Amino acid sequence: xxxxxxxxxxxxxxxxxxxxxxxxxxxxxxxxxxxxxxxxxxxxxxxxxxxxxxxxxxxxxxxxxxxxxxxxxxxxxxxxxxxxxxxxxxxxxxxxxxxxxxxxxxxxxxxxxxxxxxxxxxxxxxxxxxxxxxxxxxxxxxxxxxxxxxxxxxxxxxxxxxxxxxxxxxxxxxxxxxxxxxxxxxxxxxxxxxxxxxxxxxxxxxxxxxxxxxxxxxxxxxxxxxxxxxxxxxxxxxxxxxxxxxxxxxxxxxxxxxxxxxxxxxxxxxxxxxxxxxxxxxxxxxxxxxxxxxxxxxxxxxxxxxxxxxxxxxxxxxxxxxxxxxx
Length: 327
Ligand SMILES: NC(=O)CC[C@H](N)C(=O)O
Hints:
10 helices; Asparaginase/glutaminase_AS1; four-stranded parallel β-sheet; 2 domains; alpha/beta; globular; binds glutamine
């Protein structure tokens, strides 16, 4: 019989540095430790929480593919549908944590907090942050204050929303930020708080994940972009291309012309920005209306790719696709 005073938290492990094991020299391998091993570093948790662990994967998140996302989303939704948890924590590699968080946020239907966390330093390294981040994530998942705020990411004592959070530094403990909105809240040991009230919760943008996602590639623009790269990309016959453009989602005249041709042939073209913050605005230097382009708004290129993959399963129409990005 579960103790009803203890919040019931499901912890789902997927790997990452938080599950890293020492390898030769200073190095380590992401996704080697089991969830149970990680949790042994936090004795006494059961006096406070009712934990239920599930190892969904154990990989470096750079290797995550769409099928992993789908399996994870099913596992989380199945857990939510059982109605026997107060919160869910997902341990994850930090490299693509923001992509998984955003994808889950687009499809999960729940008021129960779903919180992703990870580590920038493996457990054996001095100053490792995994245990502290896990404790923070558990505290957030267990708190009624976190309910109805969608999928969250907790790193380095800050709570972020899935849509805005980004890994913004290649190394260092304070690698995560929400550059457009700032963090939603804070964590100190088991104490947590939010800076503002929760916005009224909307239903998820998509009811489910398609079995096979649309094929969407990302083109990274820079000075001296070789047009052959874009030619090679269009030859792959993608359903969509996300431009990680310079500035306001821009690229060379040559590339814009080729992207326009692709759009005319039915490829969804989304202009995002490589700058890391701000909002890509329509019809500034680029005539989006005329070219049939879509702008990513404030989504970064990797999140724009996820949204486009899912939105294309609903509609190929550029106007409707644009609505998804500005929703
Ligand atoms: N800090 C990390 O978690 C990075 C480890 C690995 N590349 C991953 O994303 O899983």
